[in-house]
Amino acid sequence: MYELEDVSKRFGSTWALHPLSLTLPSGRTTVLLGPSGCGKSTLLRLLNGLSRPDTGRVLFEGQPLPAEGDPLLALRRRVGYALQGGGLFPHLTGTHNVTLMAQHLRWPAARTRERLDVLLELTRFPAEALERYPAQLSGGQRQRVALMRALMLDPDVLLLDEPLGALDPLVRHELQADLRGIFARLRKTVVLVTHDLAEAAFLGDDLVLMREGRVVQQGALRELEARPADPFVTRFIQAQRPLPLSGDEVAS
Amino acid sequence: MRAALCGVLGLLLLGACTEASVTEGGGPPVRVGSKKFTESVLLGEMVTQLARGAGANAVHRRELGGTTVLWEALRRGELDIYPEYTGTLRQELFSRRHLADDAALAKALAEEGLRMSRPLGFNNTYALGMKEAEAEKSGIRRISDLRQHPELKLGFSNEFMDRADGWPALRARYQLPQRDVRGLDHDLAYRGMDSGAIDVTDLYSTDAEIAAYTLRVLEDDLHHFPAYDAVLVYRADWAEREPRVADAVLRLEGHLSEQDMVALNARARLERVPESRVSADFLASRLGVAAKVRDEGAVSRVWRRTREHLSLVGVSLAAAIALAVPLGVLASRRPRLGQGVLGFTSIVQTVPSLALLVFMIPLLGIGSRPAIAALFLYSLLPIVRNTTAGLSGIPGELRESAEALGLPPRARLWRIELPLAAPSILAGIQTAAVINVGTATLGALVGAGGYGQPILTGIRLDDVGLILEGAVPAAVLALLVSGLFELVERGVVPRGLRLRGDP
Questions:
Q1: Cβ(B313)–Cβ(B8) under 8 Å?
Q2: Are B496 and A101 a contacting pair at CB < 8 A?
Q3: Are the beta carbons of B406 and A88 separated by less than 8 Å?
Q4: Looking at the 3D structure of chain A, how many domains does it have?
Q5: pLDDT over 70 at A131, yes or no
Q6: Furthest-apart CA pair in chain A: how many Å?
Q7: Residue A101: which of B406, B497, B499 has the nearest Cβ?
Q8: Alpha-carbon distance B329 to B342, whole Å?
Q9: Statement: residue A77 has pLDDT above 80
């Protein structure tokens, strides 16, 4: 779906991304993984043109990503985007947040309604809560609305930037399971950013481990574990702390 | 929600529409002006009544804010006639020409398409005065008599102490020996004379206080002070168009002595008889002209001023919103340009209101137009600044979310950014409106009417009641406008922005 050729990005004198090349396969979930400040969000934002690379180019379905104007708008309508906290517009109700683009594109009401019903079912969101404003929704609900908004136009690609970052563990756990189900049902190209290895392994087909603006290794978790390209890979994997439970309790 | 805002603006504009010029009957129009001191208002009133007596539809633009305002308005043809002093014409308006005498002055006026009447009779110039009884006792009639009385205590207004033709020149001219000379406030000088703290002070030769404190005006026997003969200056084209009305008005020539003017000033200023009444009585007794004096009831007076005031505020604010919000949007889009815009509007804000009003007169004349233009300029800064601040204050993630959805820039502005900035923009408009209501009172200085008119008259006559008649409604209106915007906020600011946290 995406090919990145020698793309790099600098902010002032710091390299957010060193020149790197990367292929993101179609119909699969790729997780950009790494510690804070490794450039994974920057990389994600190159994929819908929120940010432009300083060097190199981003190919979408073999074509260079349009730089501006209507072609860029058209691309963005094929690429859903949701970020940490949801990025919901506080002045619009849940429904209006989700259907904003459909409204702008003058979809017939019936079509909008139909699509909304599909999304409600998909995200297991209570229909009556849709009339609430973001300030009246819980963190998990906000994230589900953001997901519906990203999926409203039935895009080919879904970009998620730390979608579960700000949630408490129980909600997070539940949403992870839901997300996996949704990815499996939709079979869309998904690019997800997280710093949590367990989440990455749970949701992703492919992991891209990054560090200080470079891709350290790309592959499945098993591959990273078995054939680490760098001692950092092993360290990152081992940084997951096992739960300090006694053997008996685990067994029971 | 845009409809709600439009509704409010509509209400404000309603004032503008109902303000349609108040014409009274037919007859050729005559526009009379006067300065903001009692003598000028009295003369303007006499001219107005004489013109009405000759069948003209005369309008008196009273208490305009100073010589420049009237002069420019006359030259531009916004006024036909107003009372002036030869000294002011020669020393101030034509100061660069160094005109030798009144004949040269008449010639200079003709070059501007203007004429002046023969003197009305009195000379309102600087003079020295002392208590009649003291003067009689010491045998002082002329300024040169002061030379024989070096023990006299002199108290002069600060302006007179400093002016080149004031005390320094007077002392040199008359070789005055007095040592005890002090500068003090003009109003204190009269009280000082009463208490005996000073014996001699400067005054204007037609001051009402001359009668009230029984002062003797000392003769300027060496002709030190320039002549400030009262005359009427008027447009030549008007006099040619309306010779009958002009003749009627010019009957005032030579009919007003200094004693007359002192008495008239005293009746208006000290006894607080309305100028129109004082003028009508004088015209009836001296020229045998019966003039109708219309007394406007307090309610209709306040209502008329409310309409005038609302129209000033409404029109200027509506125009300011129409320009300032787009400017604010532009400024937030292009930071460089934005700094320029903010810089310009800030500079406008620093121009004193009176200066800005006077500045507008050559461009827009007198009346409501210059006032509206000035208020419009003053309203720009708060609205531009708050629009820019409101837009820049939108969190980056919301901005990006809108972008990432694929909304084109215009739709992002209308659907996302402006609604999110609405509370800030509205607060800016509210600030502008409240300031506007206050500043609009200065509009009276350029003939725009409104609540400033009674304030101006009240200050002139030292009448607290009149000042309150303007100040209280202005304060109430400011509160109402502020409250109105609270209501508008409820209509315009999206509900989702007024929620705080979970319910």
A1: no
A2: no
A3: no
A4: 2
A5: yes
A6: 63
A7: B406
A8: 12
A9: yes
Task: Report d(CA B140, CA B135) in Å as an integer.
Answer: 5
User: What would the pLDDT profile of A208-229 be if each residue is shown by its tens digit?
Assistant: 999 888 888 898 888 888 888 8
**Which residues of chain B make contact with A76, given a CB cutoff of 8 A?**
403-406
- Residue of chain A whose Cα is closest to the Cα of B422: A91
Residues from chain B that touch A93, judged by Cβ atoms under 8 A, are 496
**Cross-chain CB nearest to A100 (options B397, B415, B501):** B415
pLDDT value for A250: 46
Q: How far apart are CA B316 and CA B318, in angstroms?
A: 6
- Interface predicted TM-score (ipTM) of this complex, two decimals: 0.88
Give the mean model confidence (pLDDT) for residues A101-113: 93
What confidence category does residue A120 fall into, taking pLDDT thresholds of 50, 70 and 90?
very high
State the CATH architecture for B22-121+228-287. 3-Layer(aba) Sandwich (3.40)
* Start-to-end C-alpha separation, chain A: 46
The DSSP-derived string for B322-380 is HHHHHHHHHHHH-HHHHHHHHHHHHHHHHS-HHHHHHHHHHHH-SSHHHHHHHHHHHHH
| Separation between Cα atoms, residue A185 and residue A122, nearest integer Å | 9
The answer to whether B22-121+228-287 and B298-498 have equal CATH topology is no
- pLDDT for A38: 87
Q: Which chain B residue's Cα is nearest to A80? A: B405
The pLDDT, as a whole number, for residue B17 is 42
SS3 A100: helix
The pair of structure tokens assigned to B364 is 């827009």
Q: Which residues of chain B have pLDDT under 50?
A: 1, 14-24, 501-503
In a domain, A15, yes or no: no
Interface of B with A in 370-399 (CB under 8 A): 397-398
Using CA atoms, how far apart are residues B202 and B129, in angstroms rounded to an integer?
6
Chain A residues in contact with B490 by the CB 8 A cut-off are none
Sorted by sequence, the CB contacts under 8 Å of residue B223 that are 6+ apart come out as none
Of all residues in chain B, the percent with pLDDT exceeding 70 is 93
Best of A41, A48, A68, A89 to disrupt the B interface (most B CBs within 10 Å) is: A89
Interface of A with B (CB under 8 A): 48, 50, 73-77, 79, 81, 83, 85, 87-93, 100-101, 104, 133-136, 138, 149, 153, 159
Closest CA to B245 of B1, B56, B105: B56
Q: What is the pLDDT of residue A11?
A: 87
Residue carrying structure tokens 């023969």: B118
Is residue B207 within 8 Å of residue B265, measured between CB atoms?
A: yes
Asked if A73 and A184 sit in the same domain, the reply is yes
Q: What is the CATH number of the domain that holds A197?
A: 3.40.50.300
Q: Dihedral sign, CA of B134, B140, B142, B148?
A: negative
In degrees, rounded to 5, the angle at the alpha carbon of residue B74 between the alpha carbons of residues B72 and B75 is 65
CATH 1.20.58.100 fits B298-498, yes or no: no
